[in-house]
Each structure stands twice: as structure tokens, then as C-alpha cells.
Structure prediction request, 281 residues.
Amino acid sequence: MSVPQSLLASLVSATEEVFDTMLAIPLEARPPVTGPLEVPANVVATVAFAGHRKGLVVVYSSLAAARRITSCMLGIPLGDVNGEVPDAMGEIANMVAGTFRNRLAAVEPASDISVPTVTIGTDFSMLYSSAVHRSRCPFDMQGDALSVELILTGDQAAAH
Amino acid sequence: MRFLVVDDSSTMRRIIINTLNKLGYTECREAGNGREGLDQLTANPVDIVITDWNMPEMSGVEFARAIRSNDATKGVPILMVTTNAAEGDIVEALKAGVSNYVVKPFTPATIKEKIEAVLKA
Prediction:
């Protein structure tokens, strides 16, 4: 089950705004998809939201892309990135989910967002209940692949 | 100009301090939540507090209320930097004593403009 295109458009523009403003990295959005990731993600940053809508915003990237994002965010050379990746990717997910939530709050009751959680590894899968609605927005980040997924649960899932 | 930057994200503290440094403000201290921020502020006064909203131990809104309720700190300008930008959020923050508001993501120009605004107020 996929989610409404209007919500995905808000998620795409929120993601582009965060990367453009905080990292000065332009993203090239690809058409939204459902199904498994084309490129394995070693870094998964998740922020939940609840209220008028309930669900998750999930940012997927390779470790190399996450290190590049961290380097740009902190203004440090790529080779100096060490333990900062989890916090930086959590902050990216927080800003994407927060910006997305603010856009929706302009036209409907606001939802609250959670603190981010970040998973880093090489052999894991992200599994959800089959009852959720989910769609993933892939981006090209100047050669690195990045995806942002919207997962909705409950009766409000398919509402525009 | 002395700043206290309060955020549970070390990344965001670093981004804000980097931004302040680029704007010429080099005297910056940091804390990981409102409770730590209050302790620092009481021990070492600053000219502006920049704080996040969602933090463990003591949120940014609770931190702002605590600052305003203490005679020694109640006059310190408070700039809140957060993703919470719904109208109700901003009203709640201003009622708690926040002087001005920056929504993430932000540019250095926005931080500069808001600092100048709270200093003029």
C-alpha cells in the first residue's frame, strides 16, 4: 500500500530544503517507489510522528554517503569524520521530519515528532507490519544514493 | 558577545557554534540540555542563550521559563532554534519567555538577523 502523492511531494520538498540549506548539496529527486532498496543502506535514521497522522520518516544511506553528509554538516574534512555520523544523521532525519510535519501543519492539525534513532550496520533489514502504507523517495546526491521513506499507519494513512 | 548554545545534539551545537564563529562571535559555551544550561548560566552569565526545544532532562521551553523566573538571569535574550514551527508551537515558546525563533533548517543570514533582532529588543 502506497501513500498519497501530495504527502510524498511535501516529503521530497522538505528533504531538498534541508540538504540545500544545511549542506549546500543539491539533490535530484527520482520518482517515488515501493519495494526493497536498490542500493543497500548501512545507515538508517528514523523519526516517528503521532497526532493527526501516525507513522515514520526514515532516511536510508550508505555509510560513505552518511560520512559525506556529516563532513558537510560539520564543516570538517571527510577524513576527519569519526564518531559523528549517528548524531549527524539523526539530526538530518529530525530536520526532514520536522520540516515535513510543519508543511502538513499549515493545512491540518499538527502532529508531534519523536527524537531520532539511528541504526548503523552491514547485515540487517527494516521490517514493518504489513498494515502500513509506505512509499520511498529516492534521491541522487551527486553520485551517492539516498532514500527517504514515508510510512503511515492508522485510519489517517490514506487521507489527503 | 558571549553565547550559551544548548542542544542535546552535539552536531547541532557544532553547526550553531560554527555559524556564530563565521559571524564573528567566538565566545561560545555549550550545554546538552536545559538543566546543564541553567547551571552554566547561573555560574557564568552570557549575553545571549540559543536553545533547542526538544531535549532530555529539561526542554527548551522549561529552560526558558526557568531563566525568566530567576532574577539573575531573567533579562537574558533567548533565541530558540528548533524544527517546531506550527503556530501553536511558536505561541507556546513566546509565552514561556523565548525572545525570538529560528526554524531549522536555517542559514547563517537568518541566525545573524535574529541575533540582531533580540539585541535591539
Observations:
- Chain A touches chain B through 24 residues (CB under 8 Å).
